[in-house]
Each structure stands twice: as C-alpha cells, then as structure tokens.
Design a protein that fits this description.
This protein is of the alpha+beta class and 209 residues long. The chain folds into 2 domains: 2-95, Beta Barrel (Ribosomal Protein L25, Chain P); 102-187, Ribosomal protein L25, C-terminal domain (RNA Polymerase Alpha Subunit, Chain A, domain 2, Beta Complex), CATH 2.170.120. The chain has 5 helices and 13 strands. It has helices at residues 16-24, 46-56, 115-118, 187-201, 204-208; strands at 2-10, 27-34, 37-45, 61-67, 70-81, 88-95, 102-111, 122-125, 129-134, 143-146, 155-157, 168-169, 176-181. The strands form 3 sheets. It has a 6-stranded mixed β-barrel with strand order 1-3-2-6-5-4. Strands 10-7-9-12 form a 4-stranded mixed beta sheet, with no helix packed on it. A 3-stranded antiparallel beta sheet has the order 8-13-11, with no helix packed on it. A hairpin with a 2-residue loop joins strand 2 and strand 3. The longest helix has 15 residues, at 187-201.
C-alpha cells in the first residue's frame, strides 16, 4: 500500500468564519478521528496536502502524520472540495493501527482484451472493487485479473481471484467480477424492425397513401 509523510498543526478556532480565514491564509482545515481518541482539529499547508492527494490518484494510502512531533498512522476518510474548481475545503482522517487487521476497498485491474468481445460479445463489469481485510501494510494497491481468455458466456468470480495468503476477501465467493455476455439488441434496432414488419403487412393501397 502507498505510504506518505504529512505534517499538521492543531487549530483552536472553529466554525465557518474561522475556516474561511484559514483557507485565505493558504491552509486547509481538517479533523482526525479514531476509535479511542477524541476528534483532533488540524490544519494543513494547502499546497503540500493537495500535491500529496494528487499523487495518490484516489488509491488507498497510509499517512505518517506528524502533529507537534508526535507521529500517527492515518488514512483518508473524506475530502470536501469546491464544485467549481475542485480546490480543497476540508479533509477528514481516521487513525489506524498497523498491527490490527482492517478492511479496505481495493480496485480490480482488468488486463488484456477478452476474445469473446472480438466474437461479438459484450464485456460486463459486475464488481469494480473488492473488500479485503488484513494488516494495512499488507493490503495490495489493486488486484490484477487477466481477461484475455474469456469467451462469450465466461465469467470470473471472487473465488478465482489471486489474493495474498495473509489477506481475507470479504465479498461472497460467487459474486461475479467480470463476464462476457451475448450482445444485447438495441431498442432503436428493435423499433426499426417492428416498423419494417408493419409496413410489409400493410395492403398495397395503404402503402401508396
């Protein structure tokens, strides 16, 4: 799993007005939550935090967060951005323990082109990610699936995924991750065929009209 270093300062002023002043000074307000701690109100350098979040590309990551010389391991919980320009408004973090199994949503990465697609089939993604549980540092960034051998009617379920030995998958083993199905008939094509059938069934006198 990705790992990053971040530093933050504790803030003592709260509310919309205080947060607006904080943002205008180049900082981003945040809150750190945890199972056995009271919420800690923080502020980050906006440029540093934005740069790190862009590097993550929405993947799971563990942050070594330095707060006044004390380091804590945390993960992103929620990001709030402005709708207009996606600039940061507020960020929530959650403290984790590296020696405690934790559940994570991990994306599936589909490699290759299914041969069934070349034969006229359609690729159907039933599950874009799976839930894995294990020690945080042992959780992979993604799970790779080779789909090149899939023919029409073939599918790959969760029980066929290659999961590291110390990691548990929480999804039902029969859940379909990806499948190649028969191509569906488009509604427009079906309507055109119906119109042709109706025209063919009309008497010659009506067709002339």
């Amino acid at each position: 799993m990705l790992q990053y270093d971040l530093s933050a300062q504790v803030r003592n002023k709260f509310g919309k007005g205080a947060n607006r002043c904080l943002r205008s000074s180049g900082a981003t307000p945040a809150v750190l939550y945890g199972s056995h701690i009271d919420p800690v109100h923080l502020q980050f350098d906006c440029k540093e935090l934005t740069h790190t979040l862009l590097q993550m590309q929405r993947r799971n990551a563990i942050f070594s967060l330095d707060i006044a010389g004390v380091k804590r391991h945390v993960m992103l919980k929620e990001i709030q951005t402005k709708p207009v320009d996606d600039s940061l408004l507020h960020v929530d973090f959650h403290e984790i323990k590296l020696d405690t199994p934790t559940a994570f949503e991990v994306p599936l990465k589909f490699n290759g082109k299914a041969k069934g697609v070349d034969l006229g089939g359609e690729l159907h993604i039933g599950l874009p990610f799976v839930t894995l549980q294990g020690l945080p540092l042992d959780i992979p960034d993604y799970i790779e699936i080779d789909i090149s051998s899939l023919n029409i009617g073939d599918q790959i379920s969760c029980d066929a995924l290659e999961i590291p030995a110390d990691i548990e998958i929480k999804n039902d083993k029969d859940t379909v991750c990806i499948a190649v199905v028969h191509a569906t008939v488009k509604a427009s094509d079906f309507e055109d065929e119906e119109a042709e059938d109706e025209t063919a069934a009309q008497p010659e006198s009506e067709k002339a009209e």
